[in-house]
Amino acid sequence: MIESHTLDFLKELVENNNREWFQANKDRYDKARGNVIELAAEVIAKLHKVDPSVSADLDPKKCVMRIYRDIRFSKNKTPYKNNFGISLPTQGSKLGGVEYYLQIQPGKSFIAGGYWMPEAEHLKAIRQEIDYNAADLKKVIDDKEFVNLFGEFRKQDQLKTTPKGYDADNENIDLLRLKSFIVVHELKDKEVTSANAADKIVDMCSRIYPLNVFLKNAIA
């Protein structure tokens, strides 16, 4: 579970996003990060039983992403993120690709899964899988409970044009135009700070699991 001190630290960081304040509160950051690592370890152990492709040997410390922002090409020069991100890969220890992702942020925590912005080769493979086996994907994403939890899958970033190699009148063109294949479910503060937070998160992951299976099969 996430302790209240972790959310308190993140709330104050928003108001004091500068190196001086961060250094003065480094002990609080280390404590908060340690709390997030503990949650990541608990989730990994439980999630492995649901999705064996999430290795039980994942290092939770490496799954918790850096809080330091890359500001080289950003107009926003604040040095720190206002959240903790946890990446849970399904293909070894390399972060990214088909994965589950947990974000801890006061009032804006969420669990997500799928494949965000696939590389060109993987995007081509996923589109081919949709073209050949769209019924398998639609069985997952059009399920009433799935839609209630994650919303309409097709309503995410799409190409404005038709992907190369496909016809505009393809019955699955709305899926073929997708740039990413992800789902998101928001988590309330009381959910991430509850004693059964890890169970709640893993339950959401279990609902995402069929989508990840489809995507992994596409790029295998």
TrEMBL record:
InterPro entries (alphabetical): CHP02453 (IPR012808), UCP028451 (IPR015996)
PANTHER family tied to this protein: CHROMOSOME 12, WHOLE GENOME SHOTGUN SEQUENCE (PTHR36452), DUF2461 DOMAIN-CONTAINING PROTEIN (PTHR36452:SF1)
NCBIfam families per the UniProt record, alphabetical: TIGR02453 family protein
Name of protein: DUF2461 domain-containing protein
Lineage: Bacteria, Pseudomonadati, Bacteroidota, Sphingobacteriia, Sphingobacteriales
